Amino acid sequence: MSEFILKRLFHLIPTIILISLVSFVIINLPPGDYLTARITELELQGDTSAREHLERLRTHYGLDQPIFVQYWLWATRFVQGDFGFSFEYNQPARELIMDRLLLTMILSVGTLFFTWIVAIPIGIISATHPRSLFDRIATLFSFVGMATPGFLLALVLLVFVLYAFDVSLMGLFSPEFRNAPWSVARVLDLLKHIWLPIMIIGVQGMAGLVRIMRANMLDILGQQYITTARSKGLQTRIVIYKHALRVAINPLISIAGMSLPQIIGGEMLTSIVLNLPTTGPLFYRALMVQDMYLAGSFLMFLVVFLVVGNFLADLALAWTDPRIRYN
Fold this sequence. Notes:
Distance between the termini: 12 Å
Low-confidence stretches: none
Structural class: mainly alpha
Radius of gyration: 24 Å
Shape: globular
Strand content: under 5%
Oligomer: single chain
Largest sheet: 2 strands, antiparallel
């Protein structure tokens, strides 16, 4: 097992470096940059005093250097905790990201748990009772959930609740807690508001997992070793949860490794619709105005989440199925 872990760890660093390099190059592909556009805008307004400051920023971050030099400067500083400077917001990118990253992680992890807690039992019941009324209803809702974009569901619920109950679903906090320091009261207020975004963002993932879980369980329940277990007189509960589920859940564990960055990326439009103080709207804005260091830092966090998530998924798979350790 230790050799398996070391092999997986050995692939983490070059993977992160390669993806970060490609991401940085893609961000810089559009012509121009934010500083150039900002300098032009200020000069058209007759303000030349800020040009010197912006030129110093350009020199400090190597924006007048070739792109690989820019990447090297950014990557080495990123490792040291300097994520660059947000030209749009005129402050270090670290301050902007850290303010929103915690809420994004809470929302994403909560969505992940929600999808698993709801999808797995529904998938098991549908597979053990095929063509039943429950199975048909679950299948219908799964297809509807997979076909409904999260932002559209957010808009529908937003309008419905506003007109039906005269209650706004915007944000994750009540007005008095939006800029307040963290406290027990603020955490409780967050819990009062966060459940709806979790459900909206998790609908598509939950619907997909239900279909995967149902298909896996149906396939496993038809295997010979399951028939043998039944013929030995084992209880149905033991056959399903000890023998069938342990194998059927393996593909879901693999999917879980990629779920976190997908949730973070997928919540972008929903966060814009519901005005959530997460990284999604900020990332979208950074891409639109070519705020390269802010956008690049977000991409790096997504890369780290993806790689680490896949690493943890590999460990979980090796623990649930020892055969994987020797492949």
